[in-house]
Amino acid sequence: MSSQQPFRPRAVFLDIDGTYADHGLVPEEHVEAVQLARSIGHQVFLCTGRPLAMIADRILEPGFDGVVSGAGARVDVGGEVLRDTRFEQGLADRVIEALDAHHAAYILEAPHALHGRHGVDQRLRDVLAPIFAGRERGHGRHSATVDPAADILGPMQYADDLRGTSFAKVSCFASDTPLTRVIAELGPEVGLVPSSLSALGDGAGEIFVAGTHKAVGIRVVQDHLGLAREDIIAIGDGANDLEMVEYAGIGIAVEGAAPDLVAVSDRMTARPAEHGVARALAELGLLG
């Protein structure tokens, strides 16, 4: 009698920056691991703070079963939009006015467009240049000079007055006032997570509709596809990954993640440069 266990399909949710990709470049080992896992019968989803407009074709290239974007604000599965949450317009305009009052450099993120004031592109490059100076992304023949603003500025639309813009999330890169104080002025309808680039300080972070996070998006996928929570695997490294790693049946934190994320994870894996996603999927037996 065979002792082989029946095949157990899993659903894997991958953060992009610092998890699946390294400064926007995806290791070939990660591409191959995703393709192999899916060919065997597992489902793999991107689960990112980026809006769809910031997910480059090179990242989507291997193929995925769906995308949770905007840190849970938007969910796309099989060509169907299952969730598309935006700021209510009155609240949206208050957020814009508060950020302008504190001379913030920020970008409004909608699924298919990014919006900013004229001149924010140069402010963004000025802020990011010292952080990424001298860095390369990737290794060997896959190395490339880092242009941290490239994915952001490509789909940007500029205006002098952003009031009336529809958006799901705000990425702020600099502010004269700590963002915690700005958020306090706006009240409980909005939330804040620190920027993944800690060097930007307390004037940087992501502003979202309160109650929106990656685990919300995962639950939408789970309900739509009839997934069991214990069969959900989530891998992430940043502050906005905490809820999804904690929610998953198996939550995996990338080495170097913040202590609070490590505390809720079930296991650890390596950084993208050491092919952490591929290692994790192999260790869990998802690659055959």
How much is the average pLDDT? Answer: 91
Low-confidence stretches: 137-143
What overall form do the CA principal axes indicate?
Answer: globular
Quick one: how many beta strands?
16
Strand content: 15-25%
- Helix percent reads 25-40%
Query: What Rg do the Cα atoms give?
Result: 19 Å
The ordered H/E elements are EHEHEEEHEEHEEHEEHEEHEHEHEH
SS field, number of helical segments: 10
With strands numbered from the N-terminus, the spatial order across the biggest sheet is: 5-4-3-2-1-14-15-16
Category from helices, strands and their pairing? alpha/beta
Termini gap: 21 Å
Largest sheet: 8 strands, mixed
Provide the fold topology:
Elements: E1 11-14, H1 28-40, E2 43-47, H2 57-60, E3 66-69, E4 74-77, E5 80-84, H3 89-101, E6 105-110, E7 113-117, H4 120-132, E8 136-137, E9 144-145, H5 150-153, E10 156-159, E11 169-174, H6 179-186, E12 190-194, E13 205-209, H7 214-225, E14 232-236, H8 242-247, E15 250-254, H9 259-264, E16 267-269, H10 276-283
Parallel strand pairs: 1-2, 1-14, 2-3, 7-10, 14-15, 15-16
Antiparallel strand pairs: 3-4, 4-5, 6-7, 6-11, 8-9, 11-13, 12-13
Helix pairs in contact: 1-10
